[in-house]
Amino acid sequence: MKKLTALFLLLILQVPLFNQWGAVAYYQVNRDFIAKNLCVNKDKPKMNCNGHCYLAKQLKAAEEKETKSNSEKLEKMPELVLFVQKNQVIEILHFDPIKSENNFYYSNFYNFQITSGLAKPPNFSV
């Protein structure tokens, strides 16, 4: 069922493309009729137009219609707000290092003496 739904949605997304394909299919099926009756260049047989001018006109009209409908859809589309944040006021307290008191104490109880000679490791006899 999921595959069928996905295929259906994919076909719906491709509908605007079918408009242009429909114009091409109509031209292919009715090529002779278009070349004889609807071709702009039917009085100029040396151009070998055979209705290509009609097809180009139809494709251009379909593209303009699609562009117009897309722009109208974008204009009508409501603005979607995805994130709202309240403005927060952050107060920064003034810190004056000259007037502040030092509340720490450093004690120098560390003592180091250099011993002369190397200490030998313990000797274990078994």
For the secondary structure, the number of strands is 0
Largest sheet at a glance?
none
Number of discrete helical segments: 4
Parts with pLDDT < 50 across at least 5 consecutive residues:
none
Q: Report mean pLDDT, rounded to a whole number.
A: 78
Order of helices and strands: HHHH
Structural class: mainly alpha
Taking all Cα atoms into account, the compactness measure Rg is: 43 Å
Residue share in helix: 40-55%
Strand % is under 5%
Approximate shape: elongated
| Assembly category | single chain
Distance between the termini: 82 Å
Explain what this protein looks like in three dimensions.
The protein has 126 residues and is an all-alpha fold. The protein has a domain at 2-76. Helix content is 48%, strand content 0%. α2 (15-29) runs antiparallel to α4. The mean pLDDT is 78. This is Secreted protein.
